[in-house]
Amino acid sequence: MAKNLVIIGAGESGTGAALLGKAKGYTVFVSDKGLMADKYKSILTGNGIEFEEGKHDEARILNADLIIKSPGIPEKNDLIKAIRKKGIKVISEIEFASYYTNAKFIAITGSNGKTTTTLLTYHLLKKLGVNTGLAGNIGDSLAKQVIEDKFEYYVLELSSFQLDDMFDFKAHISILLNITPDHLDRYEYKFENYVNSKFRILQNQTSSDYFITFTNDPVVSDQLKTRKITPKLLSVSLSEMESEGACQSGENLKFSLNRQSFSLPVNKLPLNGKHNIVNTMAAVLAAKAIGLDESMFVEAMSDFKNASHRLEDAGEINGVKFVNDSKATNVDSVFYALDSFTEPLIWIAGGLDKGNDYSQIEQLVKDKVKALVCMGKDNSKLVEFFSGKVQKLEDTNNLKDAVQKAFELATNGDVVLLSPACASFDLFKNYEDRGEKFKTQVLELKKEIVKN
């Protein structure tokens, strides 16, 4: 008899897992507490997969042999508590998919930079002829791609939530970019729990695998002193070469791997900013570790375009540039964003605070930000921390007012930077929704000014 597979959450990963489960002979039931997107309902219906929306049939769910849950559902959820109490195995979609492929995984995590690094690694491999899939937090679901299983490698962007429900998964190359406090509301407000979650990316790796990490990151550096690292360690550094790996040396990036050395000129790279130099070094090391020819790397990266909502040009009005960095949902991301500019900044920040510590960007804000426009339902923490630390501070509770105020505070040559440091769920569906609406609002403002 086919095993009962229950999938909780019917987004991209849940729907993909349902399709893979059906293909592998499971009896599949999908349950989503919210309302499902029409495209996913249509896919499930078309494949004869039962589902429910707007509720959870707890009795049916607790009859499962195996449960795949959306990474967005926290452990404190009552249904998850009931599942745990009954002892039903719970895994992530990535874990489930990994059971059904012999492809090798390049798995990428970190509090910041993982989307850029994932996209750049994928771009590099594809341009150099490697049969590669893209999945995880980006692209089509891994489970759906594994049904046909036509790729030699998959490049995966993995969050800590996905890693929490992965047990037998093994990466050939794991990349850990950095660890800064984030999502602490999901980790009992204990930073060490979040750190442990990130290091799960190394689980099951052997000495013939690779671990690429940014060793200038203080948390990573401390962890390396006490953790046993089984795969081959390749360090990424902005200073000197610490072991095999990569470092920045003046106007060049230097690489050393498997007794081979080469360098790439910084001015030929497609991305600006220190954080993107780290992301690029990690991607290049991954490409070199699977045996690709470094003489082709610069050309292969030359037409790379980064993800939307990450320091994205959102237009210009009367010499004031607008930049959409809506994906910056934590303080560390904002640090990198602020550090990327030399122009005076009008900074739009705020949203759903996840336990932020703003002290790590205090000096940068004093140095670079001439005005802060807070945008959220409750801006008290931002207002309290930055009062007296910026020349001007405005408090708004909607996007239209925030963009209008920011423009009024800016002069020719300034940059208005949306880099919120917070989750978006107080006013928006997600960070993409926030970023798209920001770009639209900038356009609307431009039309209004031109008209007048």
UniProtKB/TrEMBL annotation:
Hey, which pathway is this one from?
Cell wall biogenesis; peptidoglycan biosynthesis
As one GO molecular function, the record gives:
UDP-N-acetylmuramoylalanine-D-glutamate ligase activity
Keyword check for Lipid biosynthesis: no
- Residues annotated as domain Mur ligase central: 108-287
Q: Which reaction does it catalyse?
A: UDP-N-acetyl-alpha-D-muramoyl-L-alanine + D-glutamate + ATP = UDP-N-acetyl-alpha-D-muramoyl-L-alanyl-D-glutamate + ADP + phosphate + H(+)
Alphabetized, the UniProt keywords read: ATP-binding, Cell cycle, Cell division, Cell shape, Cell wall biogenesis/degradation, Cytoplasm, Ligase, Nucleotide-binding, Peptidoglycan synthesis
Entry-linked NCBIfam families:
murD
* PANTHER family per the UniProt record, alphabetical: UDP-N-ACETYLMURAMOYLALANINE--D-GLUTAMATE LIGASE
Protein's name according to its UniProt entry: UDP-N-acetylmuramoylalanine--D-glutamate ligase
